[in-house]
Design goal:
8-stranded mixed β-sheet
Length: 268
């Protein structure tokens, strides 16, 4: 079982879209998926057909404030093999509410560890949609995760923000989660007609080398429309040209998991 956070402190880079469609692609491969919406905006929640506006007491906020356990807040989506822990605006108050807790960075990890110990391996992947900031919620996700996927918008200032994120990740590895790995950097909103997109891609590949996925996600109207209908683009429009790219990316995740298993077992 792998816990993967999709993270970038910049907003509008495709984090939620990546989570929703990776989850859908993996679930279609008969993988059991749990999505955790860790963003108070709740976009992953609505993107998978659930509400982020009701006065619910069964969200990730209720887990993190200690009133509920993870097993009590998991919701079924309309999509087979795909479950969710939803979010709403209540989550935005958590940082202030836990200000006196010296171990608050570990709250999510402790909750997940307890749940996985009690339930066994119900899920193959847990995907965490992070907020667009380097806040407490993002730190919680970094502490809890085995690895990260970083969407990188192919536009001006993108690499500058990514450098800051990498420094934060390294600090987390040193002090809070030494096993954390960057699984890959995903170039998003690519426009082949725009010279800047090509320049950002080249700089990213030169600097991060094979950490950058060969799959590049272009700007696409259907991909943008799908969340407003509460579904992944793989279901909203199977003929969309982005679908094949998402499936390639999903297979890359599966292959890397298999390779890590082989390497780990070979070193024993």
């Amino acid at each position: 079982m792998q816990i993967i956070s999709v993270i970038n402190q910049k907003g509008g880079v495709g984090k939620t879209t990546t989570v929703i469609n990776l989850a859908a692609g993996l679930s279609h491969q008969d993988k059991k998926i749990l999505v955790i919406d860790l963003d108070p905006q709740g976009n992953a929640t609505t993107g998978l057909g659930l509400s982020n506006t009701d006065n619910s007491t069964d969200t990730i906020y209720d887990v993190l404030n200690g009133t509920k356990e993870i097993s009590e807040v998991i919701k079924k989506t309309e999509f087979e093999n795909l479950d969710m822990i939803s979010s709403n605006v209540d989550l935005s108050g958590l940082e202030v509410e836990t200000a006196d807790d010296g171990n608050r960075a570990f709250i999510l990890k402790l909750k997940l560890t307890a749940y996985l110990k009690d339930s066994g391996s119900l899920y193959d992947y847990i995907l965490i949609d992070c907020p667009p900031s380097l806040s407490l919620l993002t730190v919680m996700a970094l502490v809890s995760s085995h690895s990260l996927v970083v969407p990188l918008q192919t536009e001006f200032f993108a690499l500058e923000g990514l450098t800051q994120l990498m420094k934060t990740i390294e600090r987390i590895k040193v002090s809070l989660n030494p096993d954390l790995k960057i699984r890959g950097i995903l170039l998003t909103m690519y426009d082949k007609r725009n010279k800047l997109s090509s320049q950002v891609e080249k700089e990213a590949r030169d600097y991060f080398n094979d950490k950058v996925y060969s799959t590049v996600i272009p700007r696409n109207v259907r991909l943008s429309e799908a969340p407003s209908h509460g579904m992944p683009v793989l279901i909203y429009d199977k003929s969309c040209r982005v679908v094949d790219l998402i499936l390639v990316l999903q297979m890359n995740l599966l292959i890397k998991k298999q390779l890590w298993g082989v390497l780990h077992n070979g070193l024993k």
